[in-house]
Write a structure and sequence with these properties.
The chain has 165 residues and is an alpha+beta fold. The protein has two domains: 1-52; 65-164, Sandwich (Immunoglobulin-like). The chain has one helix spanning 4-52; strands at 65-68, 72-74, 79-87, 93-95, 98-100, 105-109, 113-115, 120-129, 136-147, 153-164. A four-stranded antiparallel β-sheet has the order 1-3-8-6, with no helix packed on it.
C-alpha cells in the first residue's frame, strides 16, 4: 500500500524540479539578452568606424592594391580602421590582406573574401596599435598573395605609413 507520506515526498520533489526549471529558463533569458546587447554594441561601433573611413581609390591590374587612409594615424593602444581595395590578378579564391614587417601593431582583424579573377572588393581592417608604443612615424608593409593559373604565387606589397600620436 502507498502511504500519504510517499505521495507528499514525490510532490515536493516535483515542486523543487519546477522551481529549478523556472530559474534555469530565467537565467538563460538573461544570458541571451546580455549576449545580444554586447553584440549590438560591437557591431554598431564597427559600422560607425567603417562609415567614417572613405572608400579607397579604384584598383586596376597595374595597381591591384589601394588604401584609405593612405597613412594610419592613432595613439598607442588604440584600434584604427583601414579600408583596402584589392583587384584579383590571380585565379578566383579567398583573399585577405596582411600587414607585415611591422613591430608597432599588436593585431589585425580582417575577414577573407572570395574574389573572382579580374574582380575587386573592399576589405575593412581593424588594426590594433601596440600599447606603450612611442609616438612617431613608422613604415609597415601591406601585402597579399595572388595565385596564378599555373599555381605560382605572386605577392604584391604596398607601403603602409603609421603615425602614432
Amino acid at each position: 500500500m502507498v502511504s500519504k507520506r510517499n505521495i507528499r515526498g514525490g510532490l515536493a520533489l516535483s515542486m523543487n524540479a519546477i522551481v529549478v526549471l523556472i530559474l534555469a529558463i530565467a537565467m538563460l533569458g538573461v544570458g541571451l539578452y546580455t549576449v545580444r546587447l554586447v553584440k549590438t554594441r560591437v557591431v554598431g561601433e564597427f559600422e560607425k568606424l567603417e562609415a567614417s573611413i572613405p572608400d579607397p581609390s579604384k584598383v586596376t591590374a597595374a595597381t591591384p592594391i589601394t588604401l584609405s587612409p593612405e597613412t594610419l594615424v592613432g595613439g598607442a593602444g588604440e584600434t584604427v580602421g583601414l579600408k583596402v581595395n584589392i583587384y584579383n590578378i590571380g585565379v578566383a579564391r579567398q583573399l585577405a590582406p596582411n600587414i607585415t614587417s611591422c613591430d608597432v601593431i599588436d593585431g589585425v582583424q580582417v575577414n577573407p573574401k572570395q574574389i573572382e579573377q579580374a574582380e575587386s572588393d573592399i576589405f575593412t581592417m581593424l588594426v590594433d596599435i601596440t600599447k606603450g608604443q612611442a609616438a612617431g612615424r613608422y613604415l609597415c608593409s601591406l601585402s597579399i598573395d595572388f595565385t596564378e593559373e599555373d599555381a605560382t604565387i605572386t605577392t604584391k606589397t604596398v607601403d603602409l605609413p603609421i603615425t602614432i600620436t
